[in-house]
Amino acid sequence: MSVKFFVLLILLGLILCYGVAWPQGSLVLVGEISGVINPVLADYLEKLLQDALQSEAKLVVLLIDTPGGLEESMRKMVKSILNSPVPVAAYVYPRGARAASAGTFLVLAAHHAFMSENTTLGAAHPVTVEGEAVGEKIVNDTAAFIKTLAETRGRNPEVAEKMVRESLSLGEKEALSSGLIDGIAASLEEVVEKVLSTLKEVKIVRVPLSGRERILHALLNPSLAYLLLVLGALGLIFELSNPGAIVPGVFGSICLLLAFYAFSVLPVNVAGVIFILLGFAFLALDLWVTPGIGALTVGGAISLFLGSLTLFDVRKVGIRLPLELIIFTVLGILAFFVFALSMALVAMRRKVRTGEEALKGKEGVARQVLNPEGFVIVDGELWWAESPELVTPGEKVVVVGKKGNRLLVNKKREDEGK
Question: What pTM was computed for the model?
Answer without folding.
Answer: 0.67
